[in-house]
Structures are given as C-alpha cells and as structure tokens.
Amino acid sequence: MILVTGGTGLVGAHLLLHLVEKNQNVRAIYRTKDGIEKTEALFLSYKKKELFGKIQWHLADILDVPQLEEAFIGITHVYHCAGLISFDPKDENRLRKTNIEGTANIVNFCLAKNITKLCHISSVAALGDLAEHETVVTEETEWNPEKPHSDYAISKYGAEMEIWRGQQEGLQTVIINPGVILGPGFDDQGSGLLYKRVANGLSFFTKGTTGFVAVPDVIKAATSAMNSEHSNERYIVVAENRTFQEILNSMSDALHKKHPTIEAKPWLLETIWRLDKIWSMVTGSKRNFTKYSARASYGSKIFSNEKIKADLKISFLDISTYIKSIAKA
Q1: Phi, psi of 150 (to 5 degrees)
Q2: Which chain regions cross the lipid bilayer (predicted)?
C-alpha cells in the first residue's frame, strides 16, 4: 500500500487522483475534514467522484508520532508531499518544525518499517546558490550558507538533509524539486490565488524570472522517479523558465482580461516590503509581502531540467497551453 502525506494540497490531491486511476491501494493522512472536502472537490471537477471513495483516509499529523505509527501499518511506498509554505518571518518556528521535524518523522518511520522507497516533494527553493561564474541552477549547484535565504527555503533545505540522512541509513529515496506549480482546484493559494487576482483586474507586473511547471508534470515526475531504478537522486522539475510578466499575460489572455500595464520596479517593491513590515509590527497582522517575496519578484533564476529528461525521459506540457486549460476549467 502507498502512503501519501499532504493529500489535501494541490500536489497531493492530484497525486491521489493519479494513483487511484492506476488502481493503486492508497492511504492518505489528513488533519481536518475541510482538507478532505477540498480534495473531494478536485475529484468532482475532473468528473472522477467515483474514484474518491477508493482512498483510505487516516487522521494523522506528521508531527504526531503515535498517529503516524498507525498510518504506516501495511505501507510499502511513501510520497511525502506535506509541508508548510509561508514567507512570513513570524512563521519561522512553524516552518522549521513542520518541514524539518515533520520530514524527520517520516524518514524515521520509513527506516523503522523497512519502506521500499520514499519520494519527497521538495522545492526549487531548497536548491543551491549560483557562484559568480554560473548562470543556470542544476541539481549539483551548491547551497551557500553565507548567502541570505528565506525561512521557507532554509526549512526545505533542512528537510532534504533529513532525506539524505535516511539515504545514508539505507533508505531508498528520491527528491523532486518543482518550480512554481500551476494547477486547478485550490483557488485560495498559489497559482489559484494568482488567477483570482488576474480575473479581478491585476494592474501590476514584475519582470523577474523563475521556473514554472504544470501540476500533471509534477505528478508524472514523482511517479516516474518512484517506479524507476533510480534512487538517492534529486530532480529539478521545471517545464519553462518564464518571466512573471509573461505568465500574467498568458493568464490574462486565457481569462479575456487586460494585461497588467504597470511595472512594479525593484525600488517600489523594496519600499512596499518595508512598509508592510512596519504595518505588521504596529498592528500585529500577518505579513503580506516580505523582503524575499520582493526580491523573488524582480530577481532572475534559470533552472535546468536536463537531468530528469535524460534519466526519466520526461517531457513537459507547454505552459501557455496549460494556463488556457486551467482557465477553461
């Protein structure tokens, strides 16, 4: 039986759909009924309601050891998709606890229960930092602890260190590092929230560059890596390196909205995150825009997908075409 953590999130929910379509025996852990309802809604949107009942749901938190012990009964393979995404400095402790300690718990149970293979869904945020002579981030790019990183990036890097620890203790592992994941079904987070803002008439754009990938390709990469002979490897999962302006324009076209017309220059973004910090300090409210969010918006990072294409023969969906399909959905 396969265990999926994070089955109530974008990647985990799509992974569950894929696995039950392939007649796999699947157990997914959840923390709240609301999370299960979001996954069920995704199945309904794909007209696959009859498949939802094939999932064995188990109440568990990756930080709750007794609950996890029950969840691991009869399990042979694990997809670890659970994790916290936040760029608010106030969430530093939660990020480290959930992403690092939670992953350590998963690794420990995989070792104790002699799990055949563990696939960890990480992020390009956990990848290394380019040296002066480098222009493209690969799986071999080294992490530089002297360079600034967001708390989220540090927590994802720490989670990967737990995966590598498991590998050294004999666990067969594979790590998937997706870029910005585009997909339907979760319009209160990630790309879904971006679609909402474009639909409501987004005026501003930035010219930063990063890697984007469609959620079906993340699922294809994860399952291909799990079922392959390759172990103890990590793979960057990025279809295309695009500017945020290009992505927003594609979304606008798909939704028949005007393109954003005002460029948010770096100086403006640097001003906004500072004002947001002051406002948060005065009111105690959650941060909406941080230093790292600002610099990611106008910065440029190019990611290579050559390794996964060579090892697993993965081909990727065209991002603009996929954006149109999400808008139709």
Answers
A1: -70, 160
A2: none
Q: Can you state the angle between helices 10-21 and 215-227, rounded to 10 degrees? A: 60
CA-to-CA distance for 255 and 23, rounded, in angstroms? 35
The DSSP call for residue 300 is: B
294 lies in some domain: no
Structure tokens, 21 = 């379509």
Question: Which tokens belong to 151?
Answer: 């708390």
In a domain, 268, yes or no: no
Render 150-218 in DSSP notation, one character per residue: -HHHHHHHHHHHHHHHHHHTT--EEEEEE-EEE-SS-TTSHHHHHHHHHHT---EE---EEEEEEHHHH
Is residue 223 in a domain? yes
- Quick one: pLDDT band at residue 149, thresholds 50, 70, 90? very high
Mean pLDDT, residues 256-272 taken together: 92
Mean pLDDT of 244-262: 93
Query: What is the C-alpha separation between 79 and 226, in angstroms, rounded?
Result: 9
β-pair partners for 168: none
On whether the CB atoms of residues 262 and 170 are closer than 8 A, the answer is no
CA atoms within 13 A on the CB side of 96: 7
The span from the CA of 40 to the CA of 5, in Å, is: 16
Tokens of 249: 């324009």
**Count of C-beta atoms within a 10 Å radius of residue 37:** 11
Instruction: Provide the residue range defining the domain that includes 123.
Output: 2-179+214-239+301-317
Q: How many domains does one find in the chain?
A: 1
Pair of tokens at residue 244: 């945020």
- What crossing angle do the helices spanning 319-328 and 244-254 adopt, rounded to 10°? 40
Mean per-residue pLDDT, 161-188: 93
CATH of the domain at 27: 3.40.50.720
Is-contact 83 10, C-beta < 8 A?
no
How close are the terminal C-alpha atoms of the chain, in Å? Answer: 32
Q: Which residues contact 109 (CB under 8 A, 6 or more apart)?
A: 68, 69, 72, 115
Identify whether 246 is part of a domain: no
